[in-house]
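Changelog note: in this version the structure field was regenerated for every chain. One regenerated record is shown below for reference.
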Amino acid sequence: MQTKVARLAKISVTGVVQGVGFRPFVYRLAHEHNLWGWVRNTSGNVEIEVEGDEETFENFIADLETKAPPIAHIERIETAFYPLKGYTEFKIHQSLSLEGEYQLVSPDIATCEDCKKEIFCPTDRRFGYPFTNCTNCGPRFTIIEDIPYDRLKTTMRKFKMCPECQQEYDDPLDRRFHAQPNACLKCGPSLELVDGNGNPIDGNDPIKATSDLLKAGRVLALRGLGGFQLVCDATNEKAINLLRTRKRRPSKPLAVMVATLEDIEKHCLVSLEERKLLQSPQCPIVLLRWKHNSSNISPAVAPNINYLGVMLPYTPLHHLLLKETDMPLVMTSGNLSEEPIAKDNEEAVIRLSGIADCFLFHNRDIFARYDDSVYMVENTPQAIRRARGYAPYPIFLPFKSKQILACGAELNNTFCLTKDEHAFLSQHIGDMENEETLEHFENSVELYKKLFRIEPEIVAYDMHPEYLSTKYALDAGSEQGLSLVPVQHHHAHIVSCLVDNKVEGPVIGVAFDGTGYGTDGNIWGGEFLLADWRSFQRVGHLEYVPLLGGVAAIKKPYRMSLSYLYTLLGEDFLLEDLPIRKLDLDELELIKQQLKRGVNSPLTSSAGRLFDAISALVGVRQEIDYEAQAVIELEMLAPNEWNELGLKAYPFSIVEHQGVRVVKLGELFNTVVQDVRNQTPIPSISLKFHNTVAQMIIEMCKLITNQTSINQVVLSGGVFQNRLLLKLATTTLQREGFSVLTHHSVPCNDGGISLGQAVIANFALR
């Protein structure tokens, strides 16, 4: 019989293993396996010392991975063996701060089922308490100021726990053991309802009073996890339009919060994958197909859109409010258009008093602003906006990176900090178009640098000289003497998708978006690249046309229509019988002069602008209120049911110019004009045009692969948020034998740019 040899094992566990109930889990597991020793948090990992025999160690380590708490994520377990020390019990030691070490931080997590049961159980001491949490749920990233993750380093330090909460916090067998935000009605954060000027409103039940105001058609500002949310009755068109007018958001879709999954299914079609996303611990907004005919949610929530952005309640406060109101609620970011979300009570009164009739405050400070995440499902889940529930969880790199700060682009900005195998892609920052958003960007960069002990040696940035993110990068890099690496916008798009799929390349990169500064000084956006992590070659693009009036052409798609028509079909082209906005002679003459002289009319190859032009040409949208509105509304008009094998396409040609292939668009516009004049239904034109763009992609990729033998294609850029185009392009490419990579954890829009920038910069200086 083989004698079991007892030894001491030192075990290091890295990953998201703090603030998720990992130490009490280890405590219980050690007792279960009759192991003695200790466990503690450090700034870099969770350390465990246990004594036992080899077989017991193997079982213990296996259970560490397979039975870990639901929101823990183990990245690596390392074990080393030493002589026995003679432990006689198992303890949880105090946390150890180690200089230079860093620990992954858990995102904020939606309310778990156990806590949900407590807030709705009349006999539970947390009945109706809107800040209930445990180690399996609740705030994390929004309250942490530094690591290790202990209460004194969070915004909960001002709340002294009552004896009952302290007992839970100290008991390793309790699910609230070292739950840093642990609190109850006696000792924790509380609510306060105030009027539009910040004056308290008398009453004993702020949630009941808030519900009554919402039912009366009022607009409220509610302080949530990562900032304020503007709330109103989603079935009340008058209330929604009031919110839109005050928020200066005329038609951009608004998100809706619905109490239960069963209630969501009354309003939307929900697939199995969408159901999983909605009920996940991350609890994002999910874009679902809207059942307009059976839903009482007002069309004013998302005008002219077939999809509804829906989420389930993700905090106890939301659960209680949705239960009390018994109706779906508009739940949108608490800001004026283009500003960061408001997070502090006093700040909210100053910034939102012109929008909200009343405010529902709480007194748990928010350290990091945090918007809701947005996902869609097209075969697999795809991030549209990555924030609450996901950031600051890192994207894992298939290589060891230098310490780099990548500053992202202008729209849908995120930044990315890299260190070792981790790329810390920030939460959604917003559109970098004002000083308020720049300040939010700067503060968030400093927080990430502090939390993850990163001192960048390289700063990467977009080539566009006027982006605020570019100016920040140049200033910060120059002041600190750091290496500066400019990165081409569409190369960054492709590489972000490559990293999302753990692929190095080379690939054929199809980068379709609205705007990106090109290496030739023109505005790119309909690009075909040969690309990998290190470099790219532009091998094709859509035909250049002038961007009439620069930004004005983006806001006014009819200008793009005129640019294409006059450039491709001649300056004498007649606009009669076309539904393009009728212009007075002065504006029309000004446009023609801009075209002739090239005044404020940079050349663009943008796929987004091509979609804009067709949308205006067929009479869908002449001017826009929000980004990509013309493109979205054109897509929404295409029929739901179709067979891609029988679809028709408009004519186009591909020519070679100076070694680069160009998609020529004159025949396309000429034929679309004929269809419009022949009164072909807009849905038919929309579907045919989408299929045409998919055919452009396929034909160009076939030419490139014939020359290079590369048959892996990456689809990236904001245009691929268009489900119809994405589906047509993907299925047809796959049918032609191509391997197709699309985005998953990282947005295909500019929210993923910074990840691509960081990876490219890492290899640029090697």
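Spot check on this record: Residues 541 and 662 are 5 Å apart (CA to CA). The domain at 191-375 is CATH 3.90.870.40 (DHBP synthase).
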